[in-house]
Design goal:
This protein is mostly beta strands. The chain is about 10% helix and about 50% strand.
């Protein structure tokens, strides 16, 4: 998978807008079987089976747009923000909403990089809910997929 992304920050309104374009391949040609098998061999683990049921090869083109808005900030101790995104493409088509909470000594993700500390320590939580219209990892590719184990569209 190759991914290009951009994040625009507005420090006065404490918002971030992100966008990304992902290109890649789903299926055997992505060498996931070889990678997972190699890792298991390297650690002397049990070799995983079931790869003959893998989703067929498909081109992945996905676009994402996201919006974050800081709702609360208590100095460098606590930050809370809303999060929404939409993904559309051949891998996923879904919408996500939730919030992000960060506690401890942090830089503001919406702030000026010149005022940031070099090292940060924090706890991070991001509960999210998804509304999924399409998921190729469960449903197979959009066009002509004959994979044996997929969920109906």
């Amino acid at each position: 998978m190759l991914k290009s992304f951009s994040i625009a920050k507005n420090s006065s309104s404490n918002t971030r807008i992100g966008s990304s374009l992902s290109l890649g391949i789903l299926g055997p040609v992505a060498f996931r079987q070889e990678m997972q098998t190699g890792i298991h061999r390297a650690i002397n683990g049990k070799i995983p089976g079931g790869w003959h049921n893998q989703i067929e090869n498909h081109l992945v083109i996905n676009y994402l747009i996201s919006h974050e808005k800081q709702l609360l900030r208590l100095g460098n101790v606590l930050s809370a923000s809303s999060y929404v995104d939409a993904k559309i493409g051949t891998l996923f088509t879904k919408a996500t909403a939730g919030f992000t909470a960060v506690t401890r000594l942090i830089n503001s993700p919406f702030g000026n990089p010149e005022n940031e500390k070099e090292t940060e320590f924090y706890l991070y939580a991001q509960p999210l809910i998804n509304a999924v219209a399409f998921d190729a990892t469960l449903q197979g590719g959009l066009i002509g997929d004959k994979s044996s184990y997929t969920l109906k569209k």
